[in-house]
Design a protein that fits this description.
- The complex is a heterodimer of chains A (305) and B (531).
- Chain A is mainly α and 305 residues long.
- Chain A is built from 13 helices and no strands.
- In chain A, 78% of the residues lie in helices and 0% in strands.
- Chain B has a four-stranded mixed sheet with strand order 1-10-9-8, sandwiched between helices. Chain B has a four-stranded antiparallel sheet with strand order 4-5-7-6. A three-stranded antiparallel sheet of chain B has the order 11-21-12, with helices on one face.
- The chains are: A mainly alpha (305), B alpha+beta (531).
- Chains A and B meet through α2, α3, α5, α7 and α8 of A and α1, α6 and α12 of B.
């Protein structure tokens, strides 16, 4: 728990120091973004005061921290709304994308990986390997626009954007899931192939177990443990992938909101966003740790809290 | 020990499982939310769906948070900005400026009510104006600084007394914020609560992804033909275009509403289910100089101007030379002066530099040991008025190298761009005029005066010329005063006007009657019908 808190502090402070150091993070610049033609000195002064831009980085961070622990994440300079309110509104939407696509990625990735390792002959393993390579290499925004052109403009099957019922979930989920599924499938394939070469598998087959049951009962659990770390990493990648996907698909989630906040130099919003993402990553890695101990009895004994 | 560890493992498992389940649940609930999609036929013929880049937001007219166009639909001004800067009656039927210019009398339109039924009269007008006149917060607006008192001799007459004559006042009353009118009942005590205006559209609801407006059945002016306006927030311009092509929205475009870039405009032109409307430009994008550094030398400035092939640049950007800039303002801006044809003559540029002592040594020039090297500041995420200038930047770098001027390109993002300009960390940069309805006054005040934050060009002499132009009253005097400014800038080779970017709007072909508004902050859906 203590390490988690320490990590959060370091990550939020370091990111924030970077933002402060970037050009464009001045009250005048933010005032101009806010007001369009006509930013007044009064506005500039008010922004400087609100964001504590006169203070040192440490002092400004300190102000944020002292408010954050009591639940006050500040106001957005861009919209005037409380940051906590915006996060509460947008986080579930991003989670919906991230968790949904992770589920798809795990199912598809495992299926492809299992088939890849279990099938010995024919072109299938090679094809799956190629697909995985393509899937991992294709840039998300390109895939996104391609899907929109084909399925929305040409075929009229899916809506182009926005959060508008189940049809609108498909493309964002697919774009997020594909690279993750590709990676997972390769790791599963390799781990499973390795597991299938183990003596206990030969022994099981000798005892008369079918191919299917050796895969499911003996090889896969051993392979799965090794792939869990990779899967956890993929969830992290999916989370960061939401930044691009949400922007292209006009999905009103946290990823797009965070990018817009950085562009605007919305200081308090940026800090809160980094905090949320950092917490997310910590939760993911912790969960992966725990799931691993569930899967691998050897680790239960060694687990250090 | 093992028991304790086993318990702690179970606890962690429980905690982890619990939090994952909670997240999944909230995510699932969130996924079920969102607006329902309007298919191309669903929305019906009485609703127009407009894609917008920014959420509707907080429509408080006395703050800087909300979307201009939502405010334009709901709130009316006293005076409307018409084509070419022609000032037309809106909530004021007529107005009169006194001899000395220090008193303006408005005859207010009668029988106008706010959406909540409150009467629009002189008292309501006064209440609104008091919220911004004299406030430091709005001191960018000349009107806010010169109004010294407001009188209401009768229900339909409004008198503004000014501390000094200020001819641009009437035009300033056409902008969107903060000069429009909210119902005093809903904004009692000066505390804005709801967007209750007098406009042709009544605000119904909005979220961070939607906006809904209904026709004002009691509107004082021409009532819209359509019954509803739906806004869909789509921040990415390519996605907006896709939404238009797939029939999810009916209208995109405008500099601030839902910008279309030149490449996307070409796609629209090639699509028979869509119609591209191109409006007369209201802004000029220019290459500007930092007067400190090598560009302090007028010969260098002249050479840069001669080495810039404005026609080619416009060809590359817009596929033609219709948008070549011929002055500080495009012709649609009032008092934009006489157009100037610019010469593209690299040989002459080289000659000018030779004559000024910038000796050519191989490919580069130098004078008194100082190399002729300029830094061109470019923006990577252009918003309206900041064209994606990287291609142009590279073309210029190439062209200037041919006459021996070395150019280094530096790309920064939008927020940084402003700061770097203000700090003078550049030699060359691009700058754009404000556009209607702010020009010519606000642009010259913001960019050509010595207290400008990101000046285009300033000298004490120019300050005097700007002051004279702002104070001029008669049309002939105004034309002459502004021409004096343009001539002065031309003499000094103060900048190189490059292009007047076209104003693009795109509609589905079943949308009829949409006309490009006189300025980019106005969303005029009154005469529009669908199908």
């Amino acid at each position: 728990m203590l390490t988690a808190v320490a990590v959060l502090l370091v990550v939020t402070f370091a990111t924030f120091a970077l933002v402060r150091a970037t050009p464009g993070n001045t009250a005048s610049s933010i005032a101009v973004r806010q007001a369009g033609p006509g930013a007044t000195q009064e506005q500039v002064d008010r922004i400087r005061e609100e964001l504590k831009l006169d203070d040192s980085v440490v002092a400004q961070y300190g102000v944020w921290l002292s408010r954050a622990v009591s639940g006050d994440l500040g106001r957005s300079e861009k919209t005037g709304r409380p940051v906590a309110e915006e996060i509460a509104e947008k986080l579930p939407r991003t989670l919906f994308l991230a968790l949904g696509s992770t589920l798809i990625a795990v199912v598809v990735g495992f299926a492809a990986g299992i088939v890849s390792a279990a099938v010995r002959r024919g072109p299938l393993p090679g094809v799956l390997r190629l697909l995985a390579l393509v899937g991992a290499s294709v840039p998300a925004f390109w895939m996104a626009f391609l899907l929109i052109v084909v399925f929305s403009e040409r075929l009229g099957l899916l809506p182009t954007s926005g959060q508008a019922g189940p049809a609108s979930w498909v493309m964002p989920w697919v774009v997020l899931a594909v690279p993750a599924a590709a990676t997972i499938s390769r790791v599963v394939a390799v781990a499973l192939a390795e597991a299938l070469r183990q003596p206990y598998v030969t022994a099981a087959r000798a005892r008369g177990a079918s191919v299917r049951s050796t895969i499911w009962r003996d090889a896969l659990p051993n392979a799965a443990a090794a792939t869990l770390n990779v899967t956890a990493l993929q969830v992290g990648m999916v989370l960061t992938g939401t930044v691009v996907v949400e922007t292209v698909f006009a999905w009103p989630g946290l990823g797009a909101w965070f990018v817009a906040s950085v562009e605007f130099r919305d200081n308090w919003a940026i800090l809160a966003g980094v905090l949320v993402f950092a917490v997310g990553f910590i939760l993911i890695t912790r969960t992966a740790d725990v799931v691993q101990t569930v899967g691998d009895p050897r680790l239960r004994e060694e687990r250090i809290r | 020990m093992r028991a304790a560890r086993a318990r702690s493992v179970r606890r962690t498992r429980g905690w982890a499982a619990g939090s994952v389940l909670l997240l999944a649940l909230s995510a699932a609930l969130a996924g079920c939310g969102g607006e329902s999609s309007g298919g191309s036929g669903d929305a019906g013929r009485d609703t127009i769906r407009v894609a917008v880049a920014e959420p509707v937001g907080d429509l408080n007219p006395w703050d800087f948070l909300g979307q201009f166009h939502a405010m334009d639909l709901v709130y009316d001004p006293l005076v409307a900005y018409g084509e070419g800067g022609e000032l037309e009656p809106a909530l004021a039927e007529s107005w009169e400026v006194s001899e000395d210019g220090r008193m303006v009398t408005f005859a207010l339109r009668q029988g106008v009510t706010f959406h909540d039924g409150t009467a629009f009269d002189a008292e309501a007008a006064k209440f609104n104006i008091e919220q911004w006149a004299g406030q430091e917060k709005f001191s960018f607006l000349g009107a806010a600084t010169v109004i010294s008192s407001i009188e209401t001799p009768d229900e339909h007459t409004l008198v503004l007394k000014l501390s000094e004559a200020y001819p641009p006042l009437i035009q300033e009353l056409t902008i969107v914020r903060p000069v429009r009118f909210v119902s005093p009942t809903s904004a009692e005590g000066g505390n804005y609560t709801e967007p209750v205006g007098t406009g042709p559209w009544v605000y119904e609801s909005s979220t961070d992804t939607t906006g809904a407006f209904a026709r004002n059945e009691d509107y004082w002016g021409e009532k819209p033909s359509l019954e509803h306006v739906e806004m869909k927030v789509i921040p990415d311009s390519q996605t907006r275009l896709s939404a238009l092509r797939s029939g999810e929205v009916d209208l995109i475009g405008g500099g601030y509403l839902a910008p279309i870039n030149a490449v996307e405009a070409q796609t629209v032109e090639g699509d028979s289910s869509l119609e591209l409307l191109t409006g007369d430009a209201d802004t000029t994008m220019s290459l500007i100089f930092n007067p400190r550094g090598p560009l302090a030398d007028p010969a260098v400035r002249e050479a840069v101007s001669l080495a810039t092939d404005v026609e080619s640049i416009n060809n590359v950007l817009y596929g033609g030379t219709d948008n070549v800039a011929r002055g500080y303002f495009p012709p649609t801006v009032p008092h934009s002066g006489t157009p100037v044809e610019r010469a593209f003559d690299p040989d002459a540029a080289a000659q000018v530099l030779d004559d000024a002592g910038w000796a050519l040594d191989g490919k580069a020039r130098s004078k008194d040991g100082k190399p002729l090297e300029l830094e061109l500041l470019l923006v990577s995420d252009p918003v309206h008025g900041m064209m994606d200038s990287r291609t142009v930047g590279q073309a210029l770098q190439d062209a200037f190298a041919k006459v021996g001027i070395g150019v280094e390109l530096r790309v920064v993002d939008g927020a940084a761009y402003f700061d770097e300009e203000a700090a003078g960390n550049f030699d060359l940069a691009f700058s754009t005029t404000y556009g209607a309805p702010y020009d010519p006054t606000n642009t010259v005040l913001s960019f050509l005066t010595s207290d400008a934050e990101t000046p285009t060009w300033t000298t004490p002499e120019l300050d005097g010329l700007v002051e004279a132009a702002v104070a001029a009253r008669e049309p002939a005097d105004l034309d002459a005063a502004y021409q004096a400014i343009y001539d002065y800038l031309e003499e000094a080779s103060a900048f190189v006007p490059i292009t007047n970017p076209p104003r693009y709007y795109a509609v589905r072909s079943e949308v009829d009657g949409f006309e490009i508004p006189p300025h980019e902050y106005h969303l005029d859906l009154t005469g529009v019908t669908i199908g």
